[in-house]
Amino acid sequence: MMSPTQWDLPPELCCRPMAFVALTGLDVTYNAIHRAIWDAFCANRRADRVPISFKVLPGDHEYPKCRTKRTSYEWYIPKGILKTGWMNKHLNLVPALVVLFYELDWDDPVWKEKQSECATKVEIVRTSLQGRNTKVAVVLIQKKTPLPPGEDLVASERAASLCNACDLSGKSLFVLPHTDHLVGYIIRLENAFYEHAQTYYYTEIRRVKSHKEFLNKTTHQLLFVRHQFKIAFFSELKQDTQNALKYYRTAYSLVHELRTHETNMLEIKTMAGFTNYKICRLCFQHNTPLDAIAQFRKHIDLCKKKIGSAELAFEHTAWMSKQFQSFGDLFDEAIKLGLTAIQTQNPGFYYQQAAYYAQERKQQAAHMCAHEPVGSYPTPDPLETLSGALDFYGQRAWRQGHQSIDPPDAEKEKVGIQALQVKEKDVPHSELIIALLSNAVAQFKKYKCPRMKSHLMVQMGEEYYHAKDYTKALKLLDYVMCDYRTERWWSLLTSILGTALRCSYLMAHVKDYITYSMELIGRASTLWEDQKSRIEKNLIKVLMNEVPEAEPDCDPASAKAAQALWSDRVSLAGSNRFTIEVQDYVPFVQCKARFLSPSFHLDDPVQLHLYLKADCPHPVRFSKLCVSLSNQEYNQFCVVEESCKSQDILEPLSQENMCLVPGKTRKYSFKFVAKTEDVGKKIEITAVDLMLGTDNGRCVLLNWRGGGGDAASSHEAIQAARSFRSRGRVPEQHAQWDTVSIQASTMIISRVPKISVQLSHKPPALSNEMYCICVSIQSNEKTVAKDVKLTAGLKPGQDANLTQSTQVTLNGLEVCDESHPALLPDIAIGDLQPGEKVEKSLYVCCVTTGPRIFLFHVAYTMTTQAEGTDITCKCHKDETVTIETVVPFDVAMKFVSTKFEHLERVYVDVPFLLMTDILSASPWPLHLVSSQLLLAPTMVALDEPQSQVEHVVLQTGECASECFSLQCPPVLNGTSSVASGQYLISWKRKSSCADAPVVTTVVTLSHVMVETIPLYVHAELPSFGRVRESLPVRYHIQNRTGLVQDVEMSVEPSDAFMFSGLKQVRLRILPGAEHEMLYNFYPLMAGYQNLPLLNISLLRFPTVSGQLLRRFLPSRIFVKPQGRQAEDASIAAA
Amino acid sequence: MAVCIAVIAKENYPLYIRSVPTQNELKFHYTVHTSLDVVEEKISAVGKAMADQRELYLGLLYPTEDYKVYGYVTNSKMFRKLHNSFTDVMCNPFYNPGDTIQSKAFDGMVSAMMVQAS
């Protein structure tokens, strides 16, 4: 902490005024009870206790004497506004209440004596407070707990007597029993004290107010201010802050109404400052921060121009600085107590302004105290006063109390000013400025003002520079520099770099010096050409291991010291190599590296171009350029080196390869053959190094990470890409800098294979067939393709189910099974001579339909030449093909009756037909080799089933049908669904060769419902009839139940037939028996004729209708006409 | 009248900045730069609330003891003139957006708006 200066506000102004109560009669050193009482008063006072400041004083303490009351102000001329001791006097010296503690119990044996002793002590206190309104109270410390009021008659009588003896009112006598509840009693006591104190301050306010009527406005202006200030201060002591604020405001406007002249300017400003401080403080306390800010602004506006004596202008800025600082402190204090500040209104601005005035003060001080012949400190000291302090705030020591407008003693004035100027010289200005700036930085950091923070840090850095603390200056400047660089505020960056360069020069920090110079002569610098030229010349001197010229604006003495430091550096050997990472700066040499292509084939040399451009005013010669790559073996191919002499550095020849001419782009080309093991890998540029200087002088290595570029280049690249210029045509050799883009990595990829892979096949594949793909590989290489290998099959990475449902083999004679893989890897083909061709057939069996991707990967090795060296290349070629798999045919089946009527269900032991249709879906002709029906045990064939489609060839869309006669044996439960069996079709492509395997497709036949019927009827009749010839028809009626059946039968008459036989009959058929009915029909008409309808009804099974039974019977018959020839034949037959 | 006029790119770097030649140019540059703190804060606050209703008027950005810094204000003809002139610059087919402004017409316009150096 710095010691308080004359500008600091006095502590009695800054504290919170509290009522002052003096406690006497307490022996806190030797008496334990008294100690406990005192501790209860003052120790651990919490905020909820009444605001009193207590002090223990001896009983005979001398209080400040009260001056005799003025009866008239008529001839009184005040000497100043406010006495320096006044506030302290009322805070700490003149109590509002004096409390006398006295040990006395009501039943004390020597009551009379004690009472008079107490009265004496009260009298002593009263005497020393002569003339003051201070109250006196007595507290009796008692051993016994008091009885409830009114019960102890002795006590009330003796209390009254004591009050009388001490001339006290009853309200001023208290009893304090020191029992367990001491703190509770104390709190009650102090509340009572507080009331007395308030009354005291109230009377004080009234007393000061009463002076007003005696004052006149001409001679007593100062008193108006003084009285208002005092009233306000007493109000604060009384804790009446609202009124205090009101009075301070009045006092403030009265201050500004005072007549000002040069001699009282400081006093007015001091009092204005005090009052303003009080107002702002109370406004913050009342949670009206905007009022505080408005008051402060008003205060500053009113006082800004009140400079006072020109020779002491630094005093004004010092005072202004303090005003801002203390407001900042108040603001900050309020925030700590819960106030919210915002970005544009926070304490930081006040600290910043305080720092600004401190800087002004420093300049004024430097100006006034250095250029004038200040000389030594005058004797006798004009600033010394008799008391050691001033009587009034803001007055001059050599003319205290001087209030007249008459010019003061000129000689004394001069000496006094001289003394102040000499003193000002010793003020640590930079320290003050830096402290204020760092306060402001802390605030702006809190309120999201990064740029303001940076700006203040720059100011701090500059102040450290002025204070000659270059290390700290550089630390700060370095910290913020990159912010300005990334935001591209070049003018500000240049200014900061300038300061940094001076710092590094004065400390002779070679590396920093080079780094800052490099950026100051680069394209981001806004310096003039001649300044850049000077810096570049200095940089060259440093490279030559010489001492650079001093920077302009450096303090001459410091510059001289720096020269010596630099000379030491020159003689120092060993530390002459510097590596500077320039990526994050904007250096004077720009660098961009690019691979010509994002990928290179192994047999093509990798090509790399490196572009350099200098932005400095004079040409520069470098001695080495090297590119580092991720595989360091290639580094040797990417170096340009040409050692140079000092002469070359001083006067580089612009046409030389190693010379960078300002503004011109230079291109360096590198070429190398990649290693076989780098195939499939990335080659990256890890760094570019440019060496300036020589090994015998100083050697500076500029290092770019990756493929070059710096802090400004990415933005430039974006702008260049947007620019219309980039769209114009640019001749290749004048490659414009902006159009070059960095390509820092490239891929090494395998050599392009010179081999052809062709596939022939007939898509789509049919499911389950052995699909043949013929691969033909032909080498177009000029040399032998060695070790050719084919990997063929399902391309990996597809649906996992496809791997399960696809099999691949080279053997086309057998049908694949699940043991075969989906992909055949590395099928050895052997060597292929140039032009040789090899064919290979691959058979694929796809179980499921859908598309599949097949891969044919041919790999081989061969030897070729690149850039004169033999390299072994691994080449490979991939072919893929998507093959769709489809079903070869669709199989449909149905059950029909013997009359070819569709059947929903079949009947037990009743013959029916199974019909199958094979519909070709294949685009290629299919050869059906054979078919077979494998019946389930629930079905039997009526005759030996034979394939009816054997060796049938189906074209696309053609259909082959078969028909089988079947019957179902009895089933349980009368009705059930039964399996039919399987249908096997053996087939192959028509186009496939004779020994190609036959594919068997299995179709599972659908289930069918089988029903048992109680009665079965079938007819036996010839296949045709002839008109007028007898047609015998025999009906067989079977009872298929275990019961005797009553059957009613009738034949309906028909126009087409006559018939003989029973027209209507009622039968009884035994279980399992069959009844036979014979009819002789006699056809009358030719053509298809409906047979006479046979009606059968079962009495036991009314549900079985005649209609159902009729389905088993033929409904019509073809009747041939009666032919003449045939007539004879028929007669003969008959 | 203005003492310093600056046009700032959206990436916060100056496209154009000019101040009266009589005073410390650097100080104005710092003032403009620091006021970007407020611009950034205001724009981000607006962005959060309503992206479409972009209020161009940013008002008084930053109170300094000696000057007042305003962000694009439309309530005076001054800023409308500046905006019109800036639009002209942007319409120039030879101007690449993002480059610093080098235009005589714009210079002239700005000069007319500034305190005339005596």
TrEMBL record, chain A:
<dbReference type="Pfam" id="PF12742">
    <property type="entry name" value="Gryzun-like"/>
</dbReference>
<dbReference type="InterPro" id="IPR021773">
    <property type="entry name" value="TPC11"/>
</dbReference>
<keyword id="KW-0931">ER-Golgi transport</keyword>
<comment type="function">
    <text>Involved in endoplasmic reticulum to Golgi apparatus trafficking at a very early stage.</text>
</comment>
<keyword id="KW-0813">Transport</keyword>
<dbReference type="Pfam" id="PF11817">
    <property type="entry name" value="Foie-gras_1"/>
</dbReference>
<feature type="domain" description="Trafficking protein particle complex subunit 11 C-terminal">
    <location>
        <begin position="1039"/>
        <end position="1096"/>
    </location>
</feature>
<dbReference type="GO" id="GO:0016192">
    <property type="term" value="P:vesicle-mediated transport"/>
</dbReference>
<keyword id="KW-0333">Golgi apparatus</keyword>
<feature type="domain" description="Trafficking protein particle complex subunit 11">
    <location>
        <begin position="264"/>
        <end position="522"/>
    </location>
</feature>
<comment type="similarity">
    <text>Belongs to the TRAPPC11 family.</text>
</comment>
<dbReference type="GO" id="GO:0005794">
    <property type="term" value="C:Golgi apparatus"/>
</dbReference>
<dbReference type="InterPro" id="IPR025876">
    <property type="entry name" value="TRAPPC11_C"/>
</dbReference>
<protein>
    <recommendedName>
        <fullName>Trafficking protein particle complex subunit 11</fullName>
    </recommendedName>
</protein>
